[in-house]
Specification:
- It is a single chain.
- It contains 15 helices and eleven strands.
- It is α/β, with parallel strands linked by helices.
- Strands 4-5-7-9-10-11 form a six-stranded parallel sheet. Strands 1-2-3 form a three-stranded parallel sheet, with helices on one face.
- Helix 2 packs across helix 13, helix 5 packs parallel to helix 6 and helix 11 packs antiparallel against helix 12.
- It starts with a helix and ends in a 9-residue tail after the last helix.
- About 45% of the residues are buried.
- Bound molecules: alpha-D-psicofuranose (PSV) and manganese (II) ion (MN).
- Alpha-D-psicofuranose binds next to loops.
Length: about 425
């Protein structure tokens, strides 16, 4: 299903007047504070967030999976879904593939299809956390860290193959997330496991094309429950440094123990020029993969505060970041959930862009704790939604993507086209 430009235009007409009024009011308010709305809008319009190919269907828990109907049954349909999100928002201009869940059969045709939706291929993701049919060695006890040379080599070769797929599609990065670890004390020699992981990553790194990046994810637990080889940002940072200048740490918001100060991690990594990108989601307890901003919107804002500061004060030349969503949808329509996530990311970004940074620094300089807090909360409590709408209007997107999605009856049509019981590949 393709959403035509005229449909969007027609839809926007209905809301144009009320939008114009609320935007004019906010513009005035921001200009009084010395903020140029045009600058903020330009930066908002630049932000493109990649949609993961594994988040377009109903996610499973270990207790079950309930299909939403009309789920994409193959890679082409996944691209079609991301194309739809991008047409509605003009802010999801990339898709991130997980191999082997989404192996392109004909890379040239896949690329052409993506281009027709104005999409590019973001990071490719390897999967050494599941065994595939007919695999000669098992990842049950690890992959890149495995005690056995054959298992390690199999996992290294898989990552090299993933890079090859990515090259053909025009990707410029690979994300490595390992489930490697142990569930019982004594099971693993920590140092040996980490050493082996480092060597394996270095072998993969050797196959990285000149203009590519390698992102290394960390996670404190799950599926292993006692130790994870790359448990935290420090370990990922250490490994990225051991690999070289094209390797970076990737922060997945769900991969932290409760109450971890993620914004401080962002600050440190950007200072070191080693922050590669993000997997956005939200959580209450662990890696819950909930809709971005649904539980802790203030934390998301504080993270964006550090990101904006880091981008504007960048002594170590931290490269542009890879923005991705990594979520699972058990209850809601996955596409609606992704629309909400895209909105939450832009909201937090817009709020961070309107912080009065001079006043904030002055307050810090004078140890004026109250005013420092005020500066942040002033921005966070501003309703910046008219800015988001204006950014969409200027880029040809729908003023209210979710509303249009509903009005068009997208899910009903997808069910008609693809069937009520379809299962997308993924977790
Ligand atoms: C693992 O929890 C993770 O965050 C990694 O990014 C995986 O690649 C992704 O989820 C999908 O399983
Ligand atoms: Mn992730």
């Amino acid at each position: 299903m393709r959403v035509q430009q005229e449909t969007i235009h027609h839809f926007n007409e209905k809301y144009r007047r009320s939008h114009a009024d609320t935007f004019a009011f906010l513009k005035l308010q921001l200009e009084d504070q010395g903020i140029s709305t045009d600058d903020v809008l330009a930066r908002l319009m630049e932000l493109q967030v990649a949609i993961p190919s594994w988040a377009l269907g109903a996610g499973g828990t270990r207790f079950g999976r309930f299909s939403t109907g009309g789920e994409p049954g193959n890679l082409d349909q996944k691209i079609e879904d991301v194309g739809l999100l991008h047409a509605l928002t003009r802010s999801a201009g990339a898709i991130s593939l997980h191999i082997p869940w989404d192996i392109p059969q004909d890379t040239a045709a896949t690329k052409e299809l993506a281009t027709s939706y104005d999409l590019i291929f973001d990071a490719v993701n390897s999967n050494t956390f599941q065994d595939q049919n007919g695999q000669p060695y098992s990842y049950k006890f690890g992959s890149l860290c495995h005690a056995g040379k054959e298992e390690r080599q199999l996992a290294i070769d898989h990552n090299i193959e993933v890079i090859q797929y990515g090259r053909e599609l025009g990707s410029k990065s690979i994300t490595v997330w390992l489930a490697d670890g142990s569930s019982f004390p004594g099971q693993l020699n920590f140092r040996h496991a980490l050493e082996r992981t480092q060597e394996s990553l270095q072998s993969i790194y050797k196959h990285l094309p000149e203009d590519w990046k390698m992102y290394i994810e960390y996670k404190p637990y799950e599926p292993n429950f006692y130790s994870t080889v790359i448990q935290d940002w420090g370990t990922s940072f250490l490994l990225a440094n051991a690999c070289g200048p094209k390797a970076f740490t990737l922060v997945d918001l769900g991969h932290h123990l409760p109450n971890t100060n993620i914004e401080q991690i962002v600050s440190t990594l950007m200072w070191q020029g080693k922050l590669g990108g993000f997997h956005f989601n939200d959580s209450k307890y662990g890696d819950d993969d909930l809709t971005v901003g649904s539980i802790k919107p203030y934390q998301l804002f504080l993270i964006f505060n550090e990101l904006v500061y880091g981008m504007e004060n960048n002594p170590s030349n931290n490269p542009e970041l890879a923005w991705m969503i990594d979520a699972s949808h058990n209850l809601k329509d996955p596409l609606e959930d992704l629309l909400q996530s895209l909105e939450a990311i832009r909201l937090a970004y817009a709020q961070a862009l309107i912080i009065d940074r001079e006043a904030l620094e002055a307050a810090r300089q004078h140890n004026d704790v109250t005013m420092a807090q005020e500066m942040l909360q002033q921005a966070f409590r501003t309703d910046v939604r008219p800015l988001l709408r204006e950014a969409r209007l200027r880029s040809g997107a729908a003023l209210d993507p979710l509303q249009l999605f509903r009005e068009l009856g997208v899910r009903k049509q997808l069910i008609r086209d693809r069937g009520a019981i379809t299962v997308a590949t993924g977790l």
